[in-house]
Each structure stands twice: as structure tokens, then as C-alpha cells.
Amino acid sequence: MLAALAAEVGDFVRPPIDWHAAAPELTLLAFGVLLTLMDIVWLERGRKWAPALASIGLLATMVPIITLAVDGADRSMFGGAFVVDKYALIMKAVFILAGYIVVLISSNYISEGDYWENEYYGLLLSSILGMILMASARDLITIFIALELLSIPAYMLATWRKRDLKSNEAGLKYYLMGVFASAILLYGMSLLYGASGTTLLVDLNESISASDSPSAIVVMGIIFVIVGFAFKVSAVPFHTWAPDTYEGAPTPVTAFLSVASKAAGFVALMNMLFVGFIGRDDVYEPMIFALAAVSMTVGNLIALRQTNIVRMLAYSGVAQAGYMLAPLAVASDVPDSALAATVSYLVIYAVMNLGAFAVVIAVARKTRSAEIDDYRGLFHYAPGLTVAMTIFLFALAGIPPLGGWWAKFRIMGAVIEANTVSGVVLGVFVAVNSVIALYYYARIGAKMWADEAPDGDLTPVRVPASLKSALVLTVAATIVFGVLPGLVGDVTKVSLLAGVGG
Amino acid sequence: MSEEIVFIISAVIVLVGALGVVLSRNPVHSALFLIQTLMGVALLFLIEDAHFLAAVQVVVYAGAIVILFLFVIMLLGVDKAEELGIDPIGGQRELALVVGASIAALTIVTVGWSVDGATGSAPASAENALDNGLTDIERIGRVLFTDYAFGFEITAALLTIAVIGAVVLTRSIRREDVLADLEPASLELPSLAPAGANDEDTPHDGDSGNSGAEVSSEGNRES
Amino acid sequence: MTSLLASETAAVSFPVLTAMVLTPFLGALLLLVLPNNRPEYFKQVAFLVSALTAAMTAWVMVEFDKAHAATFQFVDQYEWIETLGISWALGLDGISLWLVVLTGALFPIVILAIDAEHSPKPYYAWILVLEAGCMGVFLALDLFAFFVFFEIVLVPMYFLIGQWGHGERAYAATKFFIYTMMGSALMLVGIISTAVITANTTGNDLTFGLIELAESQALGQTAARWIFLSFALAFAVKVPIFPLHTWLPDAHTNAPTAGSVILAGVMLKLGTYGFLRFGIYLFPEAAVYFAPFLVALGTIGILYGAIAATMQRDLKRLVAYSSVAHLGFIVIGTFALNTEGIEGGLLQMVNHGVSTGALFLLVGMIYERRHTREISKLGGLQKPAPMLAGVFMVVMLSSIGLPGLNGFVGEFLTLIGAFAAHRWWAVVAASGVIIAALYLLWAYQRVFHGPAEGDNATMPDLTVREGLTMVPFLVAIVFMGVYPKPVLERMEPAVDALVAHVETHVEDFDEPVADIAHHVELEDLADLGTDTHGEEDGEHG
């Protein structure tokens, strides 16, 4: 029986698999399985090891990423559906390190609250697995699976405070909007597949960019795909889930969503744009332009009115997504600079936003609140946290010589380098918006430094060691990226997609 | 010729089922009619040599989704009589009529007047058509284990995670209760010592035992 | 135009300019790691660091080669971000020299003269960071570096106002921050556009180097005008030019004394210096095109500032509005676009830094003693505090522009230049001098004359330390008023070169020559004019 079957499929050849290239994913998967098994074998007694094991898993995943980077060769598998190049490796490293910092800021929050711990870290790792897969995905199906793999655990993490209605709302809203976006995305992908007959982005590009004017089905497909990812990166007008979800979700999860999940959305979008759609800029550029301009303006204007710092960071994240989208709107004119600018921004944004959330978590340990008014007089009882928060806020605002400034400079450099009217208009949009944004960042700064503490309560905030190390890491990175931007500049400079896109 | 006969028969099955879904008064009957419709569609797939799709149609739609419908219907109460005369949202019937008529008109126009068939010209990858001696199931198998092997394997992880997450989210007991269930078996029972007596001098291990025990007594009081 | 190109000067191996920027910054870091249990050290350390910087400034001033004042000297250039053509380039020429000297001299005095009201550690650290930023702005020869410093200076000032200020300090700090950011955000677009368009047109690598960009003049007319506007907005907010001045009175009134002194003494010059170094040098055609507009705004600023100052009840606010008027003079001088005007404007920048800085210091001393700045609550202070009154008198007369004191030379040169270029605006502007005399003398009269009642009668006079801190101001005021030649002769070649640069790159633009002998007869200020004319001749000779 088996022999007959074997004879029948005799001409089947296993596709060549480059185990080195897949090593990061496999390592992370192995640790995720290990975490789950630990839960089954040791039951709840293993929980105190969960964060440690998750950290080790993430750091272990860095090893193959580093060896691949040292090796330097571009690797490609499955006919080009899975590609490991500099760009992919950088994004993988960003996801892994962001995930590591999220574990650091989670460990006390999760163990002190009433949460399922092992599953938390297991889901976190699998979401990161989806992200690092996304960095290598160059094929519609792989992209979609990676997207689901990173989203589904995130939906569940958002509702991890199960007995809190706000958290339920957060998770449900995120889930419904996410599924809606996935459906639209999938529809767009199926249209594109129908038009081109291939799921590989490189072939897709060849097929859709051949003609002078795009067919209606291709236009629909591109629009739907971009809309789908616009949900993921919370660009206006597809941002409505973000503030509620951010506010209701456990704060470390919010940090994770606002940084890693958003970055993954951008990675997917960049894969699609730079490899799949690059010749069809007549379709996607006006759309990205509008998304970018509207996102930054609306995000900043709404952020002005927020009284809760997490909601404010959510809306500021919407605006930041607008900044990051801006270079993509000139991707056809200056593909290299545009990609490098957005990747630089993603790297630096990850650091500074995670840092800001780490401070929010630390302060909430004392105040039990995320209201901006509870930051009054922070300097008088937590000077270290105040300094850190100020650094992060000013970095987000783009004040030199902090990291955010360099990121914004890259964005502006790319859009202006395009030398088109739309590019310069976007540059002006970014400039004006940084001033609007400065207002709400500086307002928090003024509250922390100049005001008196509410009720004169000056008991210090106790910051646990893991949170402290997360803060030290993010502060150091924020400053180093600003003072020696050559570091991130050189790294992102060589990580161009052009070689992959062909 | 035989293909046409099969088509007509399955079309009748599909249409009768569809009408049955709409017209039956009992929701359970509607669900069963839906199965009939889906089976008919599976037949249509079979005529087109899409064996895999036919199987998926039966397994996923008829097997899983309709069973889920039935589940929900049973949960909500199958006996409750529905007063169909009342229109819960004003004007929705009229609206449904307009939308339905438009869709029907659109379909007729598309099928009747389009230049090269409703599905456009020849498929974009004609050379991939099912003529190289392999059935579609074999071809799907091949593609799954070659080009899409990675995605396929990752999907396995995705499903596992979805199950774990679903269990965590739907479990209604508190984590402390689980701890309480576990701890007394392996560690000293709280009733043997007066509460708080051993707090100061218990070693590291006992610490968690005590806290677990305290929580468990609280949990008992609540329940 | 090779004369403006950077050239190696007499074997400078020690990167003194980099050291001048980094010393205060490292000093700030040093302060942060000092232990908290000996707070009295903070001030001493801060003073020593700024004094060290001042010493380097003095050394630079002495070593400055006045024969080559038009070239950048002591140039430090290191690659910073190679891929984008960004370098850490610092240099000094006759235009920036005196502003650097002013910065170097003012900070130690401010640190010495004023004690932190509370939390001395961050206070002195911020002041040192501010010094580093200001030095950087005046020395930067790379647009990227310039912008970084231009923005950095906002942060310490934001904190100085927000944390150590008075009254509506949070509001004032945020307003200051937002206003100045609003201007400079668009300048960033302008800077990048300049670099990108130049690189595209010339086919060279992307560079942010000031000299390369200015010498290539690769921008088209329209582009250059738009970009000039984006720069002008940034500088106009900083100066501030009417109608963008509204942040200034708030910031000054609510700032701590040290903040006011530095704001008036150094930070307002960042804008006027920016116009000279970047606005005119990079975009000569656009500068010529917009010059009448800016001169008009400057003149309105002079009148507006003077009239508003007349109506103030708060002594500090009065000085703040007088700043608006003074900076108006600098603007019209600068955009006269001739040697006299620019030189006068430049000199006036230094003068304003000295005299208004001193005025704010004195107002701060009065406030410390009386805890009010309401003019109506003060009066007769001359009797209990004759020293204070005397010093105030001299500084105020310098601010008015009394011949023999420094303010006169600058104001007069400015007006000569402006008169040659835009005669009627200059005539209107000259009336600002008269109003300045009116409001300052009137304020002096109300504060120091008359009977001293209540707390006013027992107000203590200057202490020895305060007196000593005022000495450098008085020396500068008198010296520059009597013998401005050493100052002027070092700036003149650089200013000449700048004007020549404009003439070369702008068709049908000739320097509006100040034909003094002809015009002076028409002017009321004729007798004053001949005085300085003689002085000028002397310095040419």
C-alpha cells in the first residue's frame, strides 16, 4: 500500500531547505513549544521561569540572525517566497529586541497581576514569530499567514485582563477590526492573484507593472491590500480601534502593539510596495500620500485633547505612522532613500516608544493611573523616571540630538530628495506636524517638571530591576541613535530591497 | 451530455435547498436545507474536476459551519416561536428587495452581455491548467509541500496557538483556583498550622505554598 | 570668491572650537554625576567650566588673524554622517567672532552673579548645555550641525523658564518652545531642499557644508526665494521680528534672571546671526528681493517695541519690549545690505547683548531685593542704593545710544546703512531712538528718583560680588563706545566679503553706498554723523 503510494509520488523532490536561513524562526518556534510544554509538565509551578525562558528564547534567536548577518549572503527559499537579506535581518533583529524589551517590562506587571503567565509569554513569542516571518515573506500567502500569526496572539493578549471590561472591549474591538482588515486584505490579494496568476511578489510585479495603465482589477487589488495594512499600522481613517485597544489592553501589551505590531504592518506594506507594486506607483502613491498626510495631521490634532497618557501615545502613534508612511509615497522616485528612511524611523521609534511605555508602567505602579494629571510633580518624587520620560517625549517630538530627531530628518530628507511637489508638500506636513506634536509632549514635560505633586505625596516609585534595565536600554539607545546616527544610518543604508525587487 | 444532466440535477438540489433555507419556519430545517445546498455546490465542483474543493466544501461548510449554526440555534432555544410579521428594523424588507433585485439584475447582465464570459478571458496561467496528468488533489499536495511548505508548517503553529488562546480566554476559573487545586497536594495544608504562624520562618519554597493556601481559602469563601 | 573658503590658519593643531562647544557640555555631564551632598560645589564647578570656555574664547580672540578676517579660521572639520555629506564643521570669521566672545564672556558672569533659587544641580547643568548650544550655533559651518544646535538651545531654555521661572512659567515656557519650533521646523525643510537641489544641479555628492552650498549657488530663483522664506521665518521668530514677537515678553517676564540675561544677551542674536550667516550668504538674490519687506518689518518693530515699552508697568517687560525695538535696528541694518548697515547691525548685536543683558541683571537685582518689578511700587531707589542707580544709569544710557557709549556707534552705523538703502524707512526708524530715550529715562525717573518710601527706603545697595559682576559690562560699554576700532576692524573684512558675495551673485545689485557727505545735511542727526564719519575714516586708514 505504502509502496504503491510511494511509486505514485515517486517524482516528488523535497524542495531544498536552507536550514540556516530558517534558523531564527525555528529557534523561536522551539522555545515557544518549550514554554508550552513547561506549562503542561510543571503546571503552574513553572511560571516564575516563564519570563526568563522567553527572554532566553528571544536572545537565542538573535544568534542565528547575527550569524546570518555576518555571513552576509542573500538567501532565498521556496522559489523566492522566503528571502533572507540585510533588510529582513534588520527587521528581525528589531522585532526580537523589541520583544525582549516587552518581556522585560511585562515580567512584574504580569506576575503581580491576576494573569495567566506561561500562555502570555507563549503567545508573545508566537506573535514575534509571525513578525520575523513577515520580514522574510515575499509571497502573498506567506505574508498573509505571517500576518495572522502575529495578529491572532495579539488579539488575545489585548484582552488578557479578562475581568476588566475595558480590556474585553480592547480585545474585541481589536479582533473585529483586525479580522475585518484581514478580510479586505485577503480580498485584495485574491484579486491580485486572479489578475496575475501568481502569489510571488516578484512575478506579481512583472505581471501588473507591464502595461501602461493598470486594469481595474489590479487597482482594486492594490487599494484593498493597502487598506488592509493601513488598519494594521493604524493610519487614519483606519485607526479607530487603536486608542480604545491601547487604553484597555494591559500596558505592556499596548507597548507591544504600538511598536512591534505596527512595525510588522509596515514591514508587510514595504514588502508589498517595494517588491510587488513598485512599477504601479500611479495607483498606490496618491493613496499613500493621502494616508500619510491625513494620519499625521488628524493623529496629532486629536492627541492634543487627550487626558490619558496611553490614549495620547496611541494618537501620537497614529501620527508617527503618518510620518513613516510619508517616504513610501515617494517610493518610486527615491526607492533606496525612502526605504532607508522608513526603516530608520521604525528602529528608532521602537526604542523611544517602548521606553515611554516603560515609564508609563513604572509610574502606574505608584499612581495606579495613566491620567496625564497624575504626572504632575513627577520630578519631585521620581527624578530618574522624569528624566527618562522627558528624553522619550522629546525624542518622539524630534528634538535634536535625540534619536527621534535623526529619524525625522531621514523622513524629511527622503521626501524632499524626491524633488517632486508631493514630496515637498509632505515635508511641510511633517514639519508643521512636529510642531503640533511638540505641544502635547512639552505639556507633559511642563507638568512633570514645573507642577507640584498632587496631594504633596512624595513617596518614591519603586522600579523593579527588569523594568529598570528596559529603561536603561531604551534611554541609551535613544541617545546613541541621535548622537551617532551613523550607526543606524549605516545599517539601514545597506539594507535595500532593490536587489530583491529586481 | 452526462455533464449537463449532472449539472441540472445538482442545480435543482442547490436551488431547492436555497428556497428551503428561506422558506422553512423551523430554523433547524433551514440549517438542514443549507446542508443540501452546500452539498449541491460540492457536486458542481466535482463536475469541474475540482475534487479538493468539493471535499473542502463538504468538510468545512457542511461539516463544520452548519454544525456551528445548529449549535447556536440550539443554544438560543429552538422552541421559541418567531413572530415574522414584525419588522424589527423599519424598511428592511423593502431594502432587501431592492438590493436583491439589483444583484439579480447585475448577475443577469454579467452573464448575458459580457464579452468573453463572466470570468474574463482565458486564465492568466493557461499552461498551469489541469492537463499534466495529475489530479488537482495531487497538485495541491505538491504545492503545499514544496512552494508553500513553510507557510503550511507555520499554519500548524498558528492553529495550535489559536487553540491555546481560545482555551485561556474562555476558561472562567481564576488562576488562583488552579493554584489552590495544585498546591495542597504537594505542600503542607493550611489547616495544620494556624494562619500566619509560619510566615516568618518558612523557607523560600514554603512561601509560595502559603500564599497559595491563603488565596485558596479566600477562593473557598467566595464560592 | 575664494576668500570666503575655509583655509588653514597658523598651525592650529588643538581643535579649540570643538573644545569650546564640548567643554560646557561635558561640564554639564560632570555636574550631573557630582554627589548631591555638597550643593555649594555646583556653582563653583559650573563657573570654572564656563570660565575655562571663556579663556578659550579669549585665546581665540587674541589669536584671531584680523588680516584674514573674511576667511574661516580655526576650522575643525570631521566626518559625522558620511553617507549624507554631514560633517562636524566649526569655524570662525569676523562675523561670528564677537558673538562668540560675547557668549563666552556672558555665561561666567551670569553663573557668578545669580544663585539658583532651588535645585542648583540641574539649573547649572542646563545653563552649561545652553552655552554649548549657543557656541555651536555661532560656530557651525554645516547646515545640519547648525540646525541641531539651533534646536538644542530651546531645550535648556524651556526648562530654565519652566522650572526656575516665575508667574505663568509653564505657559511661558511652552509658548516659547512652540513658537520657536514653529519657525525652525520649516527651516529643516529648507535646509534639506537646499542640499538636495544643490546636489542634483551640480551633480556633486550630497553635502550640508555651508561654504560649498553658498559658493555653488545652484538654486533656481523661485526655489531660492521659497527656501529663504523658510529660513527667514525661523530667524524672524527667534529675533523676534514684529509680528512674531509675542512670545518674547512672556518668556522674559516669567524667566529667571539668568534666563532673561542669556535670552536677551545671546539667544536673540541667534536669529540675526542666522540672517547674516545663512540667509544672506546662501540666498543672496532672495535676500535682496525680500530686503525691503524685512526692513519695513524691522522699522515697524522699532516703533512698536518702543511704543509698547512706554506703556509697560512691569520693569522687566519694559526692557523686554525695548529689546524688540533694538532688534528692529539690527534687522534694518542687516538688510540695508551694505557694509555700514551690516557692520552696524553686527555691532549692535554685541551692544544689545551687553547693555540689555546688564539691564536684565540689574532688574533681577532689584527684584531680589524688593520682590516686585512694578514700576509704580518702586521709587526713590537712588537714595538707598546709589551704586545700583549709577550703574543702571550708565547701562540705560548705553541702551538709549548716548554718544560716547557703545550703543551709539552701532545704532548710528545701522542708520547710515539703512539710510543709503531705504531712506524713508531709516528716517522713520530714527524716531525710535527718540522714543527709546523717552521710555528709558521716564522709567529711570520713576524708579530711582523721587522720595523713597516704605521698603524702598531701606533697599540695600550693590554687594561687592554684584558690583564686580557689573564691571565687565561697564568696561565693555565705555570701551566700545570710545574706541570701537578693534571690534570693527575685525568684522569689516568679513562683512565686505559678504556684501561682495551678494554683488557677485545678484545681477543688477550694487551695494547701496552711504554717501554721507551728501545725505547728512538733510538729516537732523547731521552733527552726530560727522563725528562717526571721522571715526570711520580713522579705522579705514
What radius of gyration of chain C results from the CA coordinates? 22 Å
**Mind telling me the CATH superfamily name of the domain at 1-79 in chain B?**
NADH-ubiquinone/plastoquinone oxidoreductase chain 6, subunit NuoJ
Tell me what portion of residues of chain B adopts beta-strand conformation.
under 5%
The most extensive interface between chains reads:
A-B, 48 and 29 residues
Question: How confident overall, as mean pLDDT of chain C?
Answer: 82
Under the CATH scheme, which class of the domain at 1-79 in chain B? Mainly Alpha
Helix content of chain B: 55-70%
Could you tell me the mean pLDDT of chain B?
Answer: 71
Low-confidence runs of at least 5 consecutive residues of chain C:
1-12, 517-541
Shape field of chain B: extended
**Given the helix and strand composition of chain B, which structural class is it?**
mainly alpha
SSE topology string of chain B:
HHHHHHHH
Computed CA radius of gyration of chain B, to the nearest angstrom? 29 Å
Oligomeric status of the shown chains? heterotrimer
- Per DSSP, the total helix count of chain B is 8
Q: What is the second-level CATH architecture of the domain at 1-79 in chain B?
A: Up-down Bundle
Give the helix proportion of chain C (percent range): over 70%
Number of helical segments with 4 or more residues of chain C: 21
Query: Could you tell me the strand content of chain C as a percent range?
Result: under 5%
**How many beta-strand elements of chain B?**
0
